[in-house]
Automatic annotation (TrEMBL):
Domain of life where this protein originates: Eukaryota
Gene3D superfamilies: Mitochondrial carrier domain (1.50.40.10)
GO BP: mitochondrial phosphate ion transmembrane transport
Keywords, ordered alphabetically: Membrane, Mitochondrion, Mitochondrion inner membrane, Repeat, Transmembrane, Transmembrane helix, Transport
Protein name: Uncharacterized protein
Transmembrane segments: 233-253, 292-310
Organism of this sequence: Blepharisma stoltei
Matches recorded under InterPro entries: MCP_dom_sf, MCP_transmembrane, SLC25A3/Pic2/Mir1-like
Length: 329
């Protein structure tokens, strides 16, 4: 169940530093900090590992009229050797580590907070019946702040990965300095609106589908809870549920991702919506869906491993893996 931020058990509720007991687990500051660190590993490591796939995807989105598919993008990139495969790895690692910290850590905070409010006004059973809405609100709130941390690093990454050879620095420090010198603060945050449009629906699906898939597997297929199985089996279910969530995430958020890539690629002059409309009208038929195949592979695998790393970290600390709990009695 989505619990209260501060529970009613006196042994665990003398103040915020003590937290609440949730299904035998204390959710206090230490718990949330552990979840934040788990998010760093989950997002920072996985996004960095799939940088080559991300580059192919970004090139397809940035040049939809020149590149017809993954093969074209790969051959164009590979023409001058293999050095392209690590382009943008450092801003990717830094940016998505910050994003993961906020995405997972704040999700746990907001899930407890919103769940506590719902229980206070509606009672445990009614609050549990609204769990999908509460998962969505919690993940959206977390992603809003996570994207503020991610945006400047994502702007640098996209520019490095999509600029023609020789037109833009290919390492993090010089690339950051060039954007700062030419465009200032706006250059790092001009893409925040399309980033929110891409990431918030993505994250809502990532967390809602994951939570409900775990619940469906244990309730309707296994007729059990996570507590009835061991660590390895639970982590296998985590990966499977995360992969399913990732595929759906890729489908839902891909058009916004394509627009974000094209928008960040160039120095824009006009208002945001004017530039977006211009980019859209310049795209060939089906341009919004360019790069979908590699993105499905990338996001499905990425999301599966993110949830696996996150729950592995949690269980290493003796915490419960995410999902599949019932209403408080």
């Amino acid at each position: 169940m989505i619990p209260k931020l501060f529970g009613s058990n006196p042994a665990h509720c003398s103040g915020p530093s003590h937290g609440a007991e949730v299904h035998g687990e204390v959710h206090d500051i230490s718990y949330y900090l552990k979840c934040m660190v788990g998010g760093v590993f989950a997002c920072g490591l996985t996004h960095t590992a799939v940088v080559p796939i991300d580059i192919v995807k970004c090139r397809l989105q940035a040049d939809p009229t020149k590149l017809k598919g993954m093969g074209d993008a790969y051959r164009a990139l590979n023409a001058n050797g293999k050095s392209w495969m690590t382009l943008g790895w450092l801003p990717t690692f830094i940016g998505y580590s910050f994003q993961g910290m906020a995405k997972y850590g704040f999700y746990e905070v907001f899930k407890d907070l919103y769940g506590g409010v719902a229980e206070s006004f509606l009672g445990p059973e009614k609050a549990y019946s609204l769990r999908t809405l509460l998962y969505a609100l919690s993940s959206a709130s977390a992603e809003f702040f996570a994207d503020i941390l991610l945006c400047p690093f994502e702007a640098v990454k996209v520019r490095i990965q999509t600029s023609p050879e020789g037109a833009f620095p290919t390492t993090f420090g010089p690339a950051w300095s060039k954007i700062s010198a030419n465009e200032g603060f706006k250059g790092f945050y001009k893409g925040i609106t399309p980033l929110w449009c891409r990431q918030i629906p993505y994250t809502i699906m990532k967390f809602v589908v994951f939570e409900r898939t775990v619940e469906f597997i244990f309730k309707n297929i296994l007729h059990a809870t996570r507590d009835d199985y061991g660590k390895k089996f639970n982590l296998g279910i985590t990966f499977l549920s995360g992969y399913i969530a990732g595929v759906i995430c890729a489908l839902v958020s891909h058009p916004a991702d394509t627009l974000f890539t094209a928008y960040n690629k160039k120095q824009t002059q006009g208002a945001f919506m004017e530039e977006i409309k211009k980019i859209y009208h310049e795209m060939p038929a089906g341009g919004l869906w360019k790069g979908l195949a590699p993105r499905i592979v990338m996001i499905g695998t990425l999301t599966g491993f993110q949830w696996w790393l996150y729950d592995t970290w949690k269980t290493w600390w003796g915490l419960k893996p995410t999902g599949s709990t019932g209403p408080k009695k």
